[in-house]
Amino acid sequence: MKTQLYPTDLNDSQWDYIKDLIPPAKAGGRPRTLDMRQVVNAILYLVVGGIQWRMLPREYPAWKSVYHYFRTWRTEGTWQRIHDTLRALLRRRHGRHKHPTAGCLDSQSVKTTAIPGVRGYDAGKHIKGRKRHVLVDTLGLLITVVVTTAAVQDRDGARTLLRHLPGACKKLRRIWVDGAYRGQLLDWVAEHCRCRLQVVLRSDDQQGFAVLPRRWVVERTFAWLNHHRRLSKDYEVLPATSETMIYIAMIRIMVRQLART
Questions:
Q1: CATH number, domain at 186?
Q2: 162 within a domain of the structure (yes/no)
Q3: Which residues contact 149 (CB under 8 A, 6 or more apart)?
Q4: pLDDT in the model for residue 36
Q5: Half-sphere exposure of 241 toward its Cβ, with a 13 Å CA cutoff?
Q6: Do residues 35 and 65 lie in contact, with contact meaning Cβ atoms separated by under 8 Å?
Q7: What is the C-alpha to C-alpha distance for residues 182 and 234, in angstroms, rounded to an integer?
Q8: Does 1 score more than 50 pLDDT?
């Protein structure tokens, strides 16, 4: 039996990594009739294709039902739990401890659309929209993300991110950053966090593009995210929804890697 309607759908081996992480139906309510695999496939189709909720193909469940599960799992933290479980599993596949000890921090400014929501202006990159502050491990796997207005400085966004590090960061001791994170932030991190920031700068003699040690890892992660059209701009009303879309994109990336290994 054919289980894939569209290229974004999970195949059987990929679904095996996710199916046991889907929350069961709540007791006392109506019996669950929707196929959860099709619900997840519909959400992946939306994230990769960059479409509107109302434009989901009719082969998937009704868009209101799909959006209900997306929103419910967002507010309950289900997407992040699925993401963290898959990241720990993939790290073990690579012979690493499930809790990273080092990472790389950077930001990405993206434009917003006419959809209502908070936004700001990044004077450095001349972008009106929002900024994604992303912390990844040495494999490029997402540890945590915070979405703010583009007007927020990298140093301020880093403080917000580091104040709310998840439990998976309890072994984190070193974070590589670029020159935008220099200054008082280094002292603040040394005083308030267990980890330390290590600045990786360009050489004064460098001309043109060059791959910088350690920093290229997070740039590759941004490239992975850019393959998902829903993330080409910030189409979401709430920054929390934007963060969830990034977690879902990384879930798709990791489950594909797991199935290949």
A1: 3.30.420
A2: yes
A3: 118, 119, 120, 129, 130, 131
A4: 96
A5: 15
A6: no
A7: 28
A8: no
Alpha-helical segments (H) within the chain: 12-18, 36-49, 63-76, 78-93, 154-163, 184-192, 215-226, 239-260
Q: Classify residue 110: in a domain, yes or no.
A: yes
Q: 121, 112 in Cβ contact below 8 A?
A: no
| Whole-number pLDDT of residue 3 | 64
Number of domains, the chain: 1
**Beta strands 102-111 and 174-177, pairing class:** parallel
Q: Residue 115 pLDDT more than 60?
A: yes
Residue 179, pLDDT above cutoff 70? yes
What's the mean pLDDT when you consider all of the chain? 92
Each residue's pLDDT tens digit, 43-63: 999 999 999 999 999 999 999
Q: Specify if 60 maps to a domain.
A: no
Based on its alpha-carbon atoms, the radius of gyration of the chain, rounded to whole angstroms, reads 19
Dihedral over Cα of 104, 105, 109, 112: its sign:
positive
Residue 260 has pLDDT above 60, yes or no: yes
Which residue type occupies 116?
P
Write out the two tokens for 22: 């889907």
Amino acid 16: pLDDT: 96
- Domain span at residue 139? 99-234
The residue type found at 29 is: G
Residue 227 falls inside a structural domain: yes
Tell me the β-bridge partners of 120. 129
Cα dist from 15 to 31, 86, 88, 240, whole Å: 22, 12, 17, 25
